[in-house]
Amino acid sequence: MSEFVVKSNQGPEFECGGDVSILDAAVKNGYIFEYSCKTGQCGVCKTFLLEGEVIELQAQVALTDSQKESNQILTCCCAPKTNVLINAEDLSALHGIETKTLPARINTIKKHTADIIEVTLRLPPTANFKFLEGQYLDVIQNSIRRSYSIASTSSQKEITLLIKRFENGKMSDYWFNHAKENDLLRIEGPKGTFFLRDDLKPLLFLATGTGIAPIMSILNILDENPDYQQQHSITVYWGNRYPEEFVWQPKFENLNVDFIQVCSKPDQSWTGEVGYVQDIAMQKQPDVEKCAIYACGSNAMIQAAKQLLTERSLPEKQFYSDAFVQSY
Ligand SMILES: Cc1cc2nc3c(=O)[nH]c(=O)nc-3n(C[C@H](O)[C@H](O)[C@H](O)COP(=O)(O)OP(=O)(O)OC[C@H]3O[C@@H](n4cnc5c(N)ncnc54)[C@H](O)[C@@H]3O)c2cc1C
Ligand code: FES
């Protein structure tokens, strides 16, 4: 089977062949490029193909025709057909963070609403499960595998997940109708590259629904960090359809966070913002283009926010996202 050289103009160089994606080959060779869904839907692994040719292993759904014409590719979907030169950064902050498959038992299940639960998982004492706040893991139950962001911090003993019910969802059926304390599951993780990169700018977080989970984790670890000196504003816009879905109230010891709740289907008692997070953030947030943006939750919100922010001259490199697209 032919092996080709994949080289990035940002340093990494490795071999890749057969039906292995550029993204997977990078990981095999000790490099970590940006990624989230690994299924071609979110666009996080997008990069420029500067030289050479690739073949599509799976459809590059997140790319528009004009992006394809301008030689952009998704590294999770493509394998090299010749030697290639790409433009992808190796995220050294994730070096040493190893993806593992581990047994996990359900410790607690807390029902926040009929459609939102908080699950804590306990891992074997020897697991040594390390992750960066913001990353996700896969839960495997009876051969069904779904991704969930970690809402807890690495300083906590248990892993916390915030899970929303999907109508007729296979894993939702397990979580909401069958799961009980002490059930044995498997997890695979940590995964993804959604973590805090740049705290030298004002931080703007956008979340919908359970997309608040990795943001809880990122903010809580910042709050716990005695070396972190907050220099800039931190603002969170969290959107939900109904008022009862705001199941987390932040309590920080040290951080000063402007926390704005946005409801799209409020009742008469609602006193917060009404509408969609991306629209409210554009109206209320001064100088969005100077912020580092972290968006998580529905792909529709993320794509709309990205479009609006690009129109406001936000450099694409200041926008980080984790789209809760269908896992598999
Ligand atoms: C990186 C990542 C992180 C995630 N983190 C979380 C998290 O922290 N909390 C959480 O609640 N969910 C999260 N998700 C979504 C989760 O992995 C599942 O996709 C979701 O829970 C539905 O699984 P299910 O088996 O219940 O539904 P399925 O059986 O997969 O699907 C049931 C129906 O719902 C539709 N559907 C499924 N998933 C989605 C989706 N995401 N968007 C729109 N339609 C969908 C399907 O098309 C189908 O019609 C994450 C997804 C990704 C990719
Ligand atoms: S499109 Fe490649 S990681 Fe999501």
Word description of this protein:
With 328 residues, the chain is an alpha/beta fold. It has three domains: 3-90, Beta-grasp domain (Ubiquitin-like (UB roll)); 96-191, Elongation Factor Tu (Ef-tu), domain 3 (Beta Barrel); 203-323, Nucleotide-binding domain of ferredoxin-NADP reductase (FNR) module (Rossmann fold), CATH 3.40.50. It contains six helices and 19 strands. The longest helix has 13 residues, at 299-311. The mean pLDDT is 95. Bound molecules: flavin-adenine dinucleotide (FAD) and FE2/S2 (inorganic) cluster. Flavin-adenine dinucleotide (FAD) binds next to strand 11, strand 12 and helix 3.
Biggest sheet descriptor: 6 strands, antiparallel
The overall number of domains is 3
Order of helices and strands: EEHEEHEEEEEEEEHEEHEEEHEHE
Tell me the structural class.
alpha/beta
Which runs of at least 5 residues are low in confidence (pLDDT < 50)? none
Percent range for β-strand residues:
25-35%
Question: Reading side by side through the largest sheet, how are the strands ordered?
Answer: 11-10-13-8-9-12
CATH architectural designation of the largest domain: 3-Layer(aba) Sandwich
Quick one: CATH class of the largest domain?
Answer: Alpha Beta
The shape is globular
Hetero groups bound? flavin-adenine dinucleotide, FE2/S2 (inorganic) cluster
Overall mean confidence score, pLDDT: 95
- The tally of strands reads 19
Protein name: 2Fe-2S iron-sulfur cluster binding domain-containing protein
Domain 2Fe-2S ferredoxin-type: 2-92
GO molecular function: 2 iron, 2 sulfur cluster binding; oxidoreductase activity
Organism: Hydrogenovibrio thermophilus
